[in-house]
Amino acid sequence: MKLFSVTPSKLVSVLTICTIALVGCSSQFNSNLRKVTYPPEFKYTEKADLSSDMHRLAAQMALLEVALGMPSVEAKNEPELQREKVLKALGNMSKIASNLKAGDMGANHPFMQDYMQGFVSQIDEARIAASLKQPRYFAAGKVSGGCTNCHKVNR
């Protein structure tokens, strides 16, 4: 009794389908495959772009932490210099985070939709507090822990 009969045409068909699937799933052809598999309004964020922006955000976070730890009572211009550095880091972080924020139509990183808007709001709050006549850096300190909050939830 023959359970499986393998003919050359069946073998060629299976190999062709496997080859197409393998080529379609390779990183070189992913963008073409996404055109067929995702709806047109879907915003796909490449991992390299996301990593690059996240690294830029981390660099600004490090600058913010250095700026928050720098006040010196001896020098008269130190508080103003500190404020400038804090505001510059927060401004850069706001731009990067706004860039990372997912669009309304969906994205391949759904947690970005949940947490990025709140993070951008925290940054804006910190910028306002730091730009007051008597700058307040408590909100900026909270922003510096914002990455930990999101990544702890999403890892």
UniProtKB/TrEMBL annotation:
Record's protein name: Cytochrome C
The species this protein was found in: Paraglaciecola mesophila
Phylogenetic lineage: Bacteria, Pseudomonadati, Pseudomonadota, Gammaproteobacteria, Alteromonadales
